[in-house]
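Hey L., structure's done. Input below.
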Amino acid sequence: MLRERLDRQLRIEGWNQELLEKSPVAVVGDDPLLTSLFIMSSSALGLNALTVIAPSLDEKIIKIAKKINPELALTHIEGYFVHPAMNFVFHNSRAIVNLSTYGLAGKLAINRAYANNIAVIHGYSFAHEDRQGFKVFTYLRGREWLELNEFVRGRQVPLKKSNDPVLSILLSGIVLEELSRYLMNIKPSSEVIRYERKEPVEKSKHARVCIVGAGALGNFVALGLGFAGLKNIAIIDPDVVEVSNLNRQVLFYDSIGASKAGTLSKRLSELFDLETRFQIGYFDRSTEISSFDIIFDCVDNFETRIIISEKCKEERKILISGGSSPDAGQVVIYHPGLTNDTPAETLKLYDIVDRRQVDKYERSRESCVYRPEPSVITTNQIIAGFMVDLSRSLLSQHEVENIFYDSKSPRKF
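Output:
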């Protein structure tokens, strides 16, 4: 069962699941949601030994983490990392993840990492005036650079945090990407990874949205929208949950054989007390979208993405289109009156797919079951996080740009 669950990532060239499973990791946090999201995604990736120092965790998210991966050994020590005497909890850890904003915790983590010649992956979100964002940096012995001043300050009290749950989804995904690369002996980023934008306005919570595709992107888009407080959400997907989905479609842990759209709708109701709608079926030219303000394209084939692009252009609907591979992805937007090209035009999907065959395309479910493409949680989580974040900026009438993510690039995007 475990190998079937991890099948998609085991297909990635150069992937070393054994190193991930056998690498104990220490986690330091002070924000319950950010720390818990990181634990959940780490569990889905197959990390089995996590020791966490944090004052509290989000019980609902931790429950998901334990159901995703029954082999997860999670040790939670309630409190803050504020004294060298607590180093004993990091015994045998191959890496430290520091999600805390305490300056003292950062210093202690670096001292421990320097002494044991291991990495510290630092990640924190911030808020300054009307700006929000996050920063990530991987410290290794020898990287005693000025950039460390951004992560370890002289003041020992916590920084002012953004407390933005969508940024927490993004931040935890990028930190996990850096951690997994390090644990598999792949060089992590040599630069500070930065993301910043204007704070979204409250009115964006009242948008009527439709998620097309309830796979990995759809799961994290749904989580992001739920955490952001949106109440009017519809989901469209024709498929049922398969074992090989479970390494990244985090809300389907106990739903093999069930409808993806129905299960995702149920999970949103459980987590956020939402009354969502769902439709089991394919998106085609007859699909009704007039009641929605924004469409999230989370599908896995070019033909349907072309139809979504054309229909949103015809009906002048905001479209957020996401796509991912094991190490890259993109978010492309269409906003009537602000952008000219649809995602299908921007990505030149017509050059890839015969235009004449778009409406005749019939996806074979057998191809999904027996010939799955490599896929991993981190890029899906990151791209979905950007999709939700860009949608809020658009609805807040802030200027946005398409995002192209590359995990192999020092700056990522």
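Confidence is low (pLDDT under 50) at residues 366-370. The chain has two domains: 2-198, 202-406.

-- N.
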